[in-house]
Amino acid sequence: MAAKKLLRAIIMGAPGSGKGTISSRIMHDFDVKHLSSGDLLRKQIHDKTANGLTAKRFMESGELVPDNVMLRMVTYELSQLQNTSWLLDGFPRTVEQAHALLRDYPIDVVLNLRVPFEVIIDRIKGRWTHLASGRIYHTEFNPPKVPGLDDVTNEPLVQREDDKEETVRARLEHYRRLTHPVLQYFRNKGMVDEFTGKYSNELWPQVHGSLSKLVKPIKYTHYE
């Protein structure tokens, strides 16, 4: 009996591009383990591993966790998954990390979700929150009955700092600057599949079709 083909993939996409939604669908339909660098970092800090303690020292002093520390964390986790398909999310962030990762692990594909920044900004800046209850409204998709007021208490809604247009735009520009060199590195190697759309349900059939050429899905879930 032939060994099952394992998938080794990376997913990239700006904040608000639906990367979390698409990742969970890939896990569901392709039986892969989703490895988020942020979750991994928090886990190793919580478990007080040597790498976690090193990373914590940098974070507490307001510095970025160095490439080599992140690389050690990720490669250790991947070494535990030799017989498992995986999807790497949030790593690599630099060309140096990408080069080092490819040296040890052959990657089948880099999935890049291309959602126009203006679409993401419009989606996020429409969010308004009732702070006391945590209820979230959206001016377009889920508006309050009375503009600016919570449906239950009639108290005023506020826009969180993270949801303000200028904050979202700055975050997206930072993402573009950070990831452009990494994407170009992978593109130059012919490893990137690009998916363009406004919504996760528009992107998902494209992503599923691309991955199905590499490994056999365990199912195809259609989302309206």
From TrEMBL:
Start and end residues of each stretch annotated as NMPbind: 36-65
Keyword line: GTP-binding, Kinase, Mitochondrion, Nucleotide-binding, Transferase
Location of the protein in the cell: Mitochondrion matrix
Annotated residues for binding of AMP: 37, 42, 63-65, 90-93, 97, 160, 171
Single annotated GO MF: ATP binding
Binding positions for GTP per the UniProt entry: 16-21, 127, 136-137, 200
A Gene Ontology BP annotation from the UniProt entry: ITP metabolic process
Listed EC numbers: 2.7.4.10
Subunit structure: Monomer.
Family: Belongs to the adenylate kinase family. AK3 subfamily.
Domain writeup: Consists of three domains, a large central CORE domain and two small peripheral domains, NMPbind and LID, which undergo movements during catalysis. The LID domain closes over the site of phosphoryl transfer upon GTP binding. Assembling and dissambling the active center during each catalytic cycle provides an effective means to prevent GTP hydrolysis.
Name recorded for this polypeptide: GTP:AMP phosphotransferase, mitochondrial
Record organism: Arion vulgaris
Gene: ORF65058
